Amino acid sequence: MLDNLAANEVRVFLWHHKLSRPDIQKYADICVSAEEKGGLSNICDKRFVEKVSVRVILYKLLGKDVRICYNENGAPYLSNKQYYISISHTDGHFALSFSHRKHGIDIERWNSTAKRVSKMFATEQEVAALVDTRTITDEDEKAFCTIWSAKESIYKSHDLEELSFRDGILLKKDAFSNLIAKVSYKEATFHDTIGYRLLPDCVLTICLPASV
Fold first, then answer.
1. What structural domains does the chain harbor?
2. pLDDT in the model for residue 6
3. How far apart, in Å, are the Cα atoms of 114 and each of 23, 28, 43?
4. Residues of the chain under the 50 pLDDT cut
């Protein structure tokens, strides 16, 4: 069953399952186009399940004639370019989003890793504003997961190579409980809004860059 979430002009469809490669193969036979099947034959089981799961979501929503393609940086787009899309998956959760605007999504299972390596992606200013004040959640590990996920969705929305999570993205919170970001890349500066959902076993973040 697909969960349908909407936020700021972006529709996100989630599918949670624990199917193995043999289990999901029957879906691949139905939902994956002939052009794409060749590229799935030699990948590992985990990647196979991830790719097929996203294509099952796409099939249910838009049919088999629409394919997922990738640009030179690995960012996904639809073959008919009907919508901008973004893709994410984590430990049995698979997400595909659609919008008429460029955007990025990320989904992360709750874990302790983000807190342990937080100095690699979060500044002291962000920790003070978003973690120490319990602005996002009362649980530190979940707060750091949310910050990491937000920066992942920002990175996807801009499709900029070598964007630094720590030095190039600064997060804070606005009066409406959204995360907002100042993104600095070379000589350019962008301002983004990031919505987030704290789900029972994961966090979902959605970045929608400001209209230009």
1. 10-101 (3.90.470.20), 107-209 (3.90.470.20)
2. 62
3. 32, 33, 27
4. 212
